[in-house]
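Researcher: I'd like a structural prediction for the single chain below. Treat it as a standalone chain; there are no partners to consider.
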Amino acid sequence: MKRDSVKRISLGFFILSTILIGLFSTSITATTTYEPALNKGTATFMVNQYNEGKWEDTVDRELEPDDFFDGDSDEIGARSRITIKNVGDQDWDLHDALIFIFDVEDFIDEDKLNETELVILLSFISKDYVDEIYPEQHDVWEALTVQWDFETEEFDETPDERTYILPIFKEPKNFKDLLDDYNKWALSLNTTMLSFGIEPFPIIDGDDFLWSLIT
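Model: Treating it as a single chain, here is the predicted structure.
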């Protein structure tokens, strides 16, 4: 996976929900209309409580809070900050998600493939092929974001994390639609990859997919 291995844990949902609570401006009314909005701005988060025993029982004894949240995230009173510098409207299809999540070259070992096998695999991954089989477009906000890790001191002027893109689907259903399309695509391709003796693309669940998008 790009930037980090997929971590199979439901904390991905917690991270995204925390971001949404801090950054979404949504009118709450007794209607069935779903009209969220994402705006530029800054949200600050604070560690209000931390119980090491409960963390180990709930998450993993081998993992620390900073494996997920970075900095002093196991210190009560530590703060983190996320700033959305810009927001753009984009249409995402399956190929866009593949390019965002994966370094595709990591799955294609040219030393193990002959020229014909390489051409076949690249054709399955090409934008023309993927768009033809999975043409559905999804409305996405691409938030240009910077982040300060959890600190017990004052924030530095320069953020800890370089500028990165955080995609947020305008319609929650599109998240599942895109995940389903990805798994269908991976299943169709993996038979060929295994026959060539190379590692297949992973079949992922909602936790995996969400974590891949926000890390």
